[in-house]
């Protein structure tokens, strides 16, 4: 479809209030799903993140990499065992986890972002003791539970103008490394960083009131409702840690959490910079505050200002 | 026309390389023509300027206000006399010039911009002795010729995060005020500020090879060619100071000068953030370096980086 | 009268404790009356303000311009109507108010100050949304009541070493401009800036216990007494907003308010830097703490120090 | 052996002039050999690096990891082929190189250092485009030749108080990654960072005049002599890139390069903070300026001062 | 005794945890006793202080100089009279006190320190009104009691990288100078500076449970116990002000106070940077927390970090 | 004599251009003569210096103290021997020199200044190795010749807002102290600090064309003329080092040197802040640029501005 100049101008203008709103704020993006494995989607996500950086947002990217770990363990002939959905992680497996997350997945995203310039710095949760963990259950080996977050390295990288990309390996209180759930780390980091938003990229369109009914997509819900869904076991398995992380982030002061379909090209931009938004949004009160139509702000609109962008219209 | 999400995402993506290019740079905008008198156009220009600010550009706005001065002098029953296209400016007329430019035109634009937040600070060229002038010709009274530019106040306002809006009144070496040509001041300021671009908003589409032939619009030309057009008297009268200012800015280190039709809504955005650009562009060598198609930068493209955005693709 | 060197040295020494006291502090000066219209008085005030700046004070100048507005409206054949002492301000009149205050009165003072160097930056209360207002009474049109003060632009200008000169036009919550009382704005700004003093330049020697008896000049009084005078209607009409502004400033933390006769040359210097002081001073407790004689501080005097100049002797 | 207090005091005092000399300077440490694979040696190196950091040096650690890459490729059943001593690196092998260097070797050292506190931040040469490379020879696949060094990320990490640990993977000009020689990267980084010293940890005691004669260890030599040894093919194969890197560093302004035996516990400390030093030192002129005995500096010694520690005694 | 490299490395490693602990902290050193008069001891103390500075501590040195004052007064034929252990200080004697402390003792130590580089800046308590005092007892003349401490000059010198050396002369509230007890000033300054430690150099090994029994040296005690010893008169006379100063410092937030034998060469280093420590340590709770053996910290030890070195192991 | 307000205002106004001129500049004041020994004159000088500081100048005070040294040596029964006008300074005498200069004269002036607040910090040339010297002639003992100036401590104190007061003792290249000529040190420091002025306080009115003829006072002269007067031996003995220091300062970039009569109360203020000036001024070209009358600057005067106060009117 040909786009005429006016249409373009309207799209840019539509972005204005959202740019104003998000300016100077930190957004944590949990990168995962198909966007992590499909090079074209990865490049689109990378471009979205660079655009967000350039228009004033401070993106922090967090990722795990389960499928790639499994595939690599298979290649090495190592047994892949799960216990209650958690990967039993021997010391040897932990080495593989680190290699895949830090040495492969992380670098692929850093490389995609840096094709646009010197923006991204990859790191592991072990760097600067950013993520500390302890053993969760001895039967699980090096599976860790996060005990502390130290945002010093992240704060420095953000202040220095970089986009941090964090592989979710944790430094252990026993000197070793731990394999930690990337969704939960994203939620913890969002809270510790005082982020405005925490966005989870998945391969589905969002949460469903009834997950067998694809017409029941939930557009917005409250943290309480989200907790109830977990308690009532009404979520697909893979969604539980994501929704728990959303709730954790919100309880820790983050303003909004989003679950988006990362297979939609530029899903991040559409969520952040257009009127419609997409996916499921979880807020403190569940109110769906997206204006049906976001007109160009006229004289007299009281809008958030550059350095005092308290919660306004959005 | 309905815009589907993908189209929107494409428009935003199209803006990415231009945002990257312009990030951190100063752009001087000479505001004038219909955009100055039509409230709807003025609001659109104000929104464009705020958007530019939010996506990393430092806009500096410069304006005169000839028609409003004439109309106000008429209301006061003061004679309006021009000599070689320059307004004969008695001391009493000078008072009116200042009142209209600083007290009316300037404040209307400041007000339109600040309807979006605390962004704009209006000022006169007299503030902080930003523009100094001397008498041009005693028969013209308080018509001044710029003798010096001091960017201290502007530099401070930019560093402090504001959008300066400058009314082109100059402080005189005799302690009085001078009426100075706004186009020329814009060119001088662009050079003194080390601006990347200097954009002139007019009511026509640009320069014409033959100004009686509307099909002869010039898309791009060199500074030498522009000077030749002045020398050969091939420009419409009103264009002469604009083109002279463009040449002055380019000779002073500005990378590009543009003459745009400000009656096109969001002309600024279209010029700065889309592939097509509009109007007439004057560069050092006249090369029309706009890429026919500006694809999403892929891995391996060498692109300007955040803090070293030397002249790249654009 | 010839002044011998010793006399000069004594005058400079007399200024020492006052310079020490005022060093690093902000002083808001409400400029008005004859000093605004008489060029020689204006130049004297400008010199006083520059001297204050150079000896460590941060002056902020606030002004209105009623008489000039009236005279200009007369010239334009516009009706001048007052209602309860407030100018009925149509939209058209508001344009004139802005032009006269921002484009004429403001620039005349900026120009007088800047004849000494690059010190002053003129601005309107609309710049950076410094003064926000709402309609006071629909019958009065664009007469506004101040709703909020934002000192960001002022703080930046002060930090950058400039003397801000503020014309009292306010940004309206409806996107328009408002005509606001300059005395009240001065009091509000003094409180918001945490100023040490707020000085009102008038054409009379101060307040009188009985305003028909010129021998009843009040040298010092408390904020409570001042409020009582307003309540008991014991002030000349023009003094009411000034005294109300003094009280507002004091209640907001300003240490002293002064009403001076601006027709006395260098009244500002005499008040700030000599032992006698002049005019009426309003303080929290009304104590007339000016020492009868301010001797050169000798060893052992406990005096305010450079960075901790708490309220001392003065 | 029991150490009495006086002996301890003497050892600390012996360190004083060397601490003074090295204070505030950057030292690049090429980590490798047995120190990389033996956990006890790795912990000793980590402690040495932390001590250096605490006593005023800015260490930057650079490492490769050839043997671990080979062993991992073996486990994956991938063919290991060398061509002229360079590993033929297919795309698939490049993935393994990154995983081993960035995800394993790097993290093991970061973890050992951070057992002492939040000091180290691991990174790849791809982060922030720190090391850029191009293909060296198409037959070698992803083996790269360094084309550019950008120290922005390193400078920021050093300024922020961290110890950067750099895995020598390079960002390619084609958007891919390159496998680059760690010795050469260490030399390049030392020059680009304006380092004072560049130290190579190996498994031998240094360079030998005749490498078949272990009594011919060279204590000090000049850059010219080092170049000659390369030219005359008088070095063991593994030493060639190290010596070439030493020469490159010296030619780029580094003051000294050292080749140490990393199997000696605390070899770094002994080289940097004791009188004897160890290993082979290469300097601009080959002078062995280590004083035979470094007495406590007495009054009158002209010693380097805190902020001007130009090359003095050492 | 010959020291082999390994022994040296062990000594340096032994210092690591203590260096880590003390890094970035302020230590007040009361210089006195034989170390003040014996040039060799003075040079050793100076070297210790420079080493402490270089390894991250901010030393502040405080000194008196009683014996030298007495000897100088004797040379001048001035009567030396003590009253309750306090020197009766006439105005003339006060001049001598200042000359000896500020002009001789202070400069000798500054000179010894600066033989290592531009580190020390000598000052008197009068400079910048750092120490203010009032008369203690009119019969004692210019003997003062400290009334206020202003650490501005000290803070500035520390921030600027210098080692302040303070002679304990106080500025009087009467414009004159006062002779103040150096031990007490050291304790006051340590508290005001938020120092980590306050160390008193004396000529004895520490405090004795029974000062006639040299085998009863107290290694560690609490502030309460120290106060009790003063109250029960169980201290040698000269120790009373030192112990009182220790208690004052501890009550004011200092973590530890030490009384060391300054005739032991490098006593400061041994106390601060070795496992054994020496002398008597007074802490809040008297716990002797020096670990019997301070092993090299291994992976997993939770140790204080660079910028958050809260009280850990030590 | 009674001073009426207008006279006072005129005096303050007269100071305005001089304040503007000197603002932000460094002035070195060589303190000596009667002002050093007479407490009332000392207090007047102290007040002058504080006033200068408050009105924007950075004063640096330098002093010796010959007569007091002699008197103290007499009291100690030490022989006072001069050789070619230079005090033969044994090691013992050097101790006395330091005690008198640093411990007495310096502290008296610091105390007089600090009676006005926390302004002065006394120091010796040995502090921070500010003044380095070597022996001048072995027969003179510890008489030194300045070899180097390091303004680091002075720069820091000035930046921190203090008034440095420097006793002219130098750190020796042999670890000892040296007695150096205060006039010459003042000239050297003025040059090294890039001072605007260097002022010598003496007990005479200035230089005389014929020093036996008190009517031949020289108001202004050039550096060349001053050098010639030294060469031709046309100066009183005590004036030679002062004039030599003036010439050194001027050759080193100082704009003006002054020789004033410090027995005139507030001589400093009269020289710096009034139209007449006093004493002898030495400039590069000898031009007596003091305007006969310094009128209030009117609109249009081109005056030095706050941050660019290049040499203007004065």
Described by strand count, sense and barrel closure, the largest sheet of chain A is: 8 strands, mixed
The CATH class of chain A = Alpha Beta
**Spatial order of strands in the largest sheet of chain A:** 5-8-2-1-11-13-14-12
Mean pLDDT of chain A: 86
Write the layout of secondary structure elements.
The structure is a homohexamer of 314-residue chains.
Chain A: H1 5-22, E1 26-31, H2 34-37, H3 39-54, E2 58-63, H4 66-75, E3 82-83, E4 86-87, H5 91-114, E5 120-124, E6 131-135, E7 144-149, H6 152-159, E8 163-167, E9 169-172, E10 177-179, H7 182-193, E11 197-202, E12 220-222, H8 223-231, H9 239-251, E13 256-261, H10 267-273, E14 280-283
Parallel strand pairs in A: 1-2, 1-11, 2-8, 5-8, 6-9, 11-13, 12-14
Antiparallel strand pairs in A: 3-4, 6-7, 9-10, 13-14
Question: Describe it for me?
Answer:
Six copies of one chain form a homohexamer. In chain A, strand 6 and strand 7 (144-149) form a beta hairpin. Chain A has one domain (8-283): Carbamate kinase, CATH 3.40.1160. Chain A contains ten helices and 14 strands. Chain A has 314 residues and is an alpha/beta fold. The model of chain A is unreliable at 290-314 (pLDDT under 50). Helices cover 39% and strands 20% of the residues of chain A. The interface between A and B is large, with 54 and 55 residues.
